[in-house]
């Protein structure tokens, strides 16, 4: 590669191009000749002119560095046509370049070719002019880098885009100023870079709004840049290759290697990449959208409206680099993958062939997907600056909007205009930030002014305070990047974050929170940011603060007010709902003992009052004056709140400390007074009526299968009579049980009377006859371990009325099924029942123990406890009698006894209940379910019998567990009889 070395300013007179005018004239003639060849190639004619006329126009004393071809007032720059030749085509285009509708248009092909040679002419002419001006000023000029020297497969020529056929002649107006790129131009070596060993590459990549620095070591000291708006940088070989391939945005100077950006493809082998915010706009000012002005590629000047939106996903194979964001510097991996390409007009998925891809994309195979167009999906970074502390100021760190536009404009002005050497005082930063002078603030920060300076005249407020107060996001961003303290306090202990919250600036609040500002700071009056946000009703700020997880949702200020109290007073319903969803405590009171419900009734918002009541705020809460919420609502005359409180059972006769009731506080001519009067009369009428009357919902749940009817009543709720089972009076079978019912196998007596003698064989089988003449159990009957009872059976010779036939005679006592308060349905006596009387039999479905293990509902299982052979059960879940409703009592009044009647198969005894003591009318019947039942069921519910001897209540279970824990640690306590008695209790 051939390069020209730069010369110092005092040596420019020795340059052969400046010592005489001939070399400059030769260079211009060479340009004209090459340009003529280009026009001849496209069958166009060059307007007849002389080299002197072009030379004179080149050396015009205007001194402007920008060359305008077809701008306003540029007709004098066009050479006049000769009298012998007809007017050339370019002169016609000048006449119709204004934005007017006309039918006199040249053919589309002619206009497109005309526009193409105008662009190329501009490109060649600017290169020649810039070189001459640079030499005269003593500036090191550029040399074009040969693509072959960088080992690049495809070379980038100046073939113009074919997408402009059919454009009208008015498009020539777009050429009023087209700054082209200098990606292929190289400046001389930087001495400082060549002297330092292991110098890192100065390239910066833009990846989804984040700036990523390169960590590669440079090999060459020559500098490059994509345009004159970007500073010269030294690059590694990889980024030099991307620079030459036009992968560096001329607007901001950031490389478009990964992320989302626009791509102009004037040729199949060329891909010009740039950000949406850096597109060249002519005719209507600089705009970010595709609908304002005329858009051109900043690389080649082609029409940018057809630019394709490209998304290159990072891959995990790239080394770790330093990533610079808007607020911090982190370390992460920046991967590079194949690009996903769609055009900006959503024509669907655009797939390139391998020979049509850019050189870097053609090396890998990947999937090309469509990406939605629009500003949100484009990595529009724009220009940036580096502050003296090393942190960047980049517009991409801000959300799209006026703040980003203002910051971008300030950076562009700072970068393009010559900075004046001014001296500033730190106190000048505050008024500049207050007025929102972004350019002035940026200039001060670039000069090193301390952003944390606090002026005594401003109550120790800094520039960040006033910027947050005014909601100037771009100023806050610059100050934070420059090193402003996020939690700096003024004289009232207020931070910039509190200023933003108090003035309801959501974006500034979000930025400061994301930057690390303290969200739980307390100012002078005990207010936090959540207090202010709840008071203002800013749901966005409240949600933002709550999502941090660092704020105390129940924090109380100097008056004892919580955020939910502030929101209730100012009737912010959405804020109340958000605070309640986060667990705000509505029972907390302020210094005057007012709860949240007091403030809701004072504000008269019935919606908030109902929400607070549903959250658990007591309606009977009183403040230091003795006022309830009903007192306050009655005094203020809020009928809706009064109606709500009365419907929830508020007491209208309660008096405050001054002896006033809610009725006396209401105006006598108001609807509130009428409502309170009506409610008082209704309450008095309800208080005088009887208690809830028992409702008979069934006259006989046994449906006539028992000797006496068993009614069903309910005085608790509206539950109907149970109907999820089939009432049966005897045990039934759903599968063969093989019960020995053979009458010849029965042992029987030969008594001819009432079996009262000791010679009765059935009584001898039971050890003795345990029934007295009144068909009750004898007093000496063992109630703890009841013996088996063998009643007389079908094979006996005695009468059916003998005293040894009690259970088989059926139910004789009057029982009632009723609804209990805590235990569902229960059974109680409708008559006095003496001790030892037969109550009923436990009847159900006979099943095996294996079948019982697979039943889902085991609440109705009764184990028959056969010690010899297989065990069977009675399940009263689907088939049963009144006994299925008898509840558990830790102090039972009935006991189960095994009885044999119609058969003597010991595997299937009948379970009969007898009273263990005298039972009075209305008392509930109950027996002990046993410890095996509660060992399993205590995990799901506890005993509700209410007995003093209850062993399975929640308290008793907790006491037993603590006793067992003590025994594990101290086994010697197991011998303590006192502790054992406590445990049994």
Structure write-up:
With 985 residues, the chain is of the alpha+beta class. It has five domains: 1-145 and 160-176, no CATH class; 179-379, no CATH class; 586-689, Ankyrin repeat-containing domain (Serine Threonine Protein Phosphatase 5, Tetratricopeptide repeat, Alpha Horseshoe), CATH 1.25.40.20; 693-938, SET domain (Beta-clip-like); 953-985. It has a four-stranded antiparallel beta sheet. Strands 3-4-12-13 form a four-stranded antiparallel beta sheet, with no helix packed on it. Helix 11 runs parallel beside helix 13, helix 13 runs parallel beside helix 15 (529-536) and helix 19 (596-603) packs parallel to helix 21. This is Euchromatic histone-lysine N-methyltransferase 2. Keywords: ANK repeat, Chromatin regulator, Chromosome, Membrane, Methyltransferase, S-adenosyl-L-methionine, Transferase, Transmembrane, Transmembrane helix. Residues 47-62 have a biased composition (Low complexity).
